[in-house]
TrEMBL record:
Lineage, uppermost ranks: Bacteria, Pseudomonadati, Bacteroidota, Cytophagia, Cytophagales
Protein name per Swiss-Prot or TrEMBL: Glycosyltransferase 2-like domain-containing protein
Subcellular location: Membrane
The keyword Transmembrane is annotated on this UniProt entry: yes
Protein's membrane topology: Multi-pass membrane protein
Membrane-spanning segments: 232-251, 271-290
Organism, scientific name: Hymenobacter crusticola
Entry keywords, A to Z: Glycosyltransferase, Membrane, Transferase, Transmembrane, Transmembrane helix
Listed InterPro entries: Glyco_trans_2-like (IPR001173), Glycosyltransferase_2 (IPR050256), Nucleotide-diphossugar_trans (IPR029044)
Family annotation (CDD domains): DPM1_like_bac
Length: 310
């Protein structure tokens, strides 16, 4: 009986300096598991020599597949494109910057092969990143875990392996604003963590995910899986009402004592309290309306330019 095919999805974007090491370590890890594998590298609109290097490597190793997107669609979309192309009974997701060690794939595969779980995901025990970035990421994971009620999403990312049953459920989710760790937690099934220390980028450069992109991804996660923005509006509104009520009392008292400055009551209470709360509410509602608009547009989240397979 032939071994089940193992697929590994690796999105890459301007990683020409890492490609050779990435492929070498991935092939070594996968060969230690099975000879029946496919490594799908998704080129997310690279503008350097990443794609030529991948195609040159594929000429020597046909188990390397290269999926070329028409432009840069973003990390989550690149993963989704690779997942749709995967043919394996077991499918893994791994970042292409070697911060997620491919040497952990055999441990994940063993958990799935022995039927101990349907999904094995990497859980970070440590991060080799700057303290500011670590503080922001830990703060996000703490907030998301608390308000989304998805406890297994704490200190995790995309690094994971799913069996075909779990993957089919995962691919049945079609929303455009995608946060893959949240979607993976949402589908349920038997999930087990594989602890590891997240490493620094192999080439020593800064992570490709800028603070702006991290912030946008955090917003997608919170608006898609948590009612925190609505609760912030509610609690801010309640706080504003309390402040407005106390301020109203102070206005009456100050007027009775004839110590109120002229025009103070109307300007302070109306502009600073009610105005700021209304602007906050409009901003939150605008985020929801924009996301609803994107979903109703129903545009594809990626376009494939080429797929170099057998």
């Amino acid at each position: 009986m032939p071994e089940p095919l193992l697929s590994v999805i690796v999105p890459v974007f301007n990683e020409e300096g890492l490609i050779d090491t990435l492929l070498q370590r991935c092939f070594a890890a996968l060969e230690s598991i099975t000879a029946a594998f496919e490594l799908i590298c998704v080129d997310d609109g690279s503008r350097d020599q990443t794609l030529p290097r991948l195609l040159a490597a594929r000429a020597a190793e046909p188990r390397l597949k290269v999926l070329v997107l028409s432009r840069n669609f973003g990390h989550q979309s690149a993963y989704t494109a690779g997942l749709h192309a995967a043919k394996g009974q077991y499918v893994a997701m791994m970042d292409g910057d070697l911060q997620d060690p491919p040497e952990l794939l055999p441990s994940m595969y063993e958990l799935l092969r022995t039927n101990q779980c349907d999904i094995a995901y990497g859980q970070r025990t440590d991060r080799a990143e700057g303290w500011g970035r670590q503080l922001l990421i830990k703060g996000f994971h703490g907030i998301f875990s608390s308000f989304s009620r998805m406890k297994q999403s704490d200190n995790v990312g995309n690094f994971s392996m799913l069996n075909r049953k779990a993957l089919d459920a995962f691919l049945s989710l079609h929303e455009k604003n995608r946060y893959l760790p949240g979607l993976r937690a949402f589908i349920g099934f038997r999930q087990l963590p594989v602890p590891y220390a997240r490493q620094a980028r192999h080439d020593g450069t800064l992570p490709k995910m800028s603070y702006k992109r991290l912030f946008a991804l955090a917003l997608d996660a919170l608006f898609s899986f948590s009612d925190l923005p609505i609760k912030i509006c509610l609690y801010t509104g309640l706080f504003g009402m309390i402040v407005f009520f106390l301020g109203g009392i102070w206005v009456l008292v100050s007027k009775a004592l004839n110590v109120a400055p002229f025009g103070w009551s109307s300007l302070e209470l109306s502009i600073y309290f009610i105005g700021s709360i209304q602007l906050l509410f409009l901003g939150v509602l605008g985020e929801y309306v924009f996301r609803i608009y994107r979903e109703n547009q129903n545009r594809p989240i990626y376009f494939i330019q080429d797929y170099h397979d057998e």
